[in-house]
Amino acid sequence: MSKIEVTSPFDGKVVGTVKYNTFEEVEAAIDLAHKTFTNKDGWLPKYKRVEILENVMKIMSSQVEELTILCASEGGKPYIDSKVEILRAINGIKIAIEHLSVFEGKEIAMGHTNTSANRMAYTFKEPIGVVAAISAFNHPFNLAVHQVVPAIAAGCPVIIRPATQTPMSAVRLVEILEEAGLPKGWAQAVVCDRKGGELLSTSPKTAFLTFIGSGSVGWYLNSKASDGTRVVLEHGGVAPVIVEADADIEDMIPALAKGGFYHAGQVCVSVQRVFVQESICEEVASKLANAASKLIVGNQLDPKTEVGPLINNAEVDRVEEWVNEAVAKGGKILTGGKRISASCFEPTVILNPAEDALVSTREVFGPVVCIYSYKTLDEAIARANQLDVSFQAAVFTKNIDNALKTVKRLNATAVMVNDHTAFRVDWMPFGGAKVSGLGMGGIPHSMNDMSVEKMMVIKSPVL
């Protein structure tokens, strides 16, 4: 049996091993999931799904510390934030259970025309089929919960293919589901190469593909998906923030620092481009740089660490190259700008980098925040909308008209007013548009997407 070693992003030490699945094993997993789904007599009733998910919550709640260390060790997210991730994951399961109580169809009107007389009609939800989940490294446990648990709640067999850098969390989630009473075949984890992941995504036996990762891979898999497969993609964005002159600066700076440097900026909605009205730009830039300079960078398992390593050393090299390019094109480093080690990069604030610099046009996915001055709100909105991405954005202002104008005009799927771009709770819709993705995540939305509506029409002379 082939295995791979999982290493810490901070120092490269081995933190665990997992089974590495062959192409044939991925095929077998798909066949088992499909066989499980097609056996309708074996479908899990709602009350059984609730019972299993409640057991999962109990198991996870009793292992918060162990799961936190597991998640932090492989992913590099600081201990304090990894603990929040585990607690969010537990609450996400609760959200799925609660949504089952309103997971329902509706009556379709009949009898108001001669042709529909003597009939009544109702819709109800059925599981869509086998769910294939391709996951990302940056929230290894909570992303797995967001992709796997809605499938189980909706009644679908699910196969998750986690990122090979962070496979242990997803594998552990599947183990916990089975410990909680989920029968074999309903949830499987496969750790495999790209060829195996492509098979999982494109098999005609796959009814639903949920993908979290790079745009190039996601759109490729979308183009190759079998006819009839429903696809939801979550890619990245280059989150814009607009700061008007009347913004509450003291309240805003901690939010921008958290939104920009949480998990070393490796979040698809991290604060990256901050457009600040020119009258307060110098003050905002100085205060954000000061906040960034005080952040503690280091080993993710140290409870004092606020910014951990990037996922691998090659990413540190890339971020360093992008920052150097921004400086060469006229950007001013206010704090940071350099690598600390092979695995860590300083929290960095750059003032007015060129509009065509990589840090201005592409998702950095690192601890870098760029600040740009502007004269008018219309100018800021136009500059924020220049890129072909559309995910979460933000505006800071006390003027309700300017807030509403910005919300209406920004290219975004969500706009936060007086909060950072990375705000999220697990029951809200979450996802990108344009090149940033397709469809919406969020546990209730995923459950709905993983189901189909079936209608029953009854004809009777007594109706």
Automatic annotation (TrEMBL):
The keyword Manganese does not apply. Keywords: Oxidoreductase. Residues 3-454 form the Aldehyde dehydrogenase domain. InterPro entries: Ald_DH/histidinol_DH, Ald_DH_C, Ald_DH_N, Aldehyde_DH_dom, ALDH-related_metabolic_enz. Its EC number is 1.2.1.79. GO terms for molecular function: lactaldehyde dehydrogenase (NAD+) activity; succinate-semialdehyde dehydrogenase (NADP+) activity. SUPFAM superfamilies: ALDH-like. Pfam families: Aldedh (PF00171). Belongs to the aldehyde dehydrogenase family. PANTHER family: ALDEHYDE DEHYDROGENASE (PTHR42991). This is Putative dessication/salinity stress-associated aldehyde dehydrogenase. It comes from Arcobacter porcinus. The gene is gabD.
